[in-house]
# Entry
Amino acid sequence: MADFDSDEVREKLAQYAGLHEIAEVTTFRAYKRRRDEQTTSVTVEIFDHGAAAGDLRWFVRARDELGNQAACNPDQTLDLALLSTHWNELEGDGTPDQADSRTL
# Structure
């Protein structure tokens, strides 16, 4: 992977392409044992909007193979974003009956 300064890239994307709310996204793949003892694959995306975003710097979104989604409100630190992610949303059966908290 290329070595670059993420904040510099954000500035250039804003300047040259007129983009905003620019995030560097890191993806992790993992497995979660659910309360029903089933194991599901989970993809976790961590969005870093850069230091200039202040209190809105970090955002976490997770999706499992059943279609369940968990997220947090943007936060100033990665720890707070991870702690406030609604991980319990990954316990659903993938049906849209939880649509209000699963719409991302």
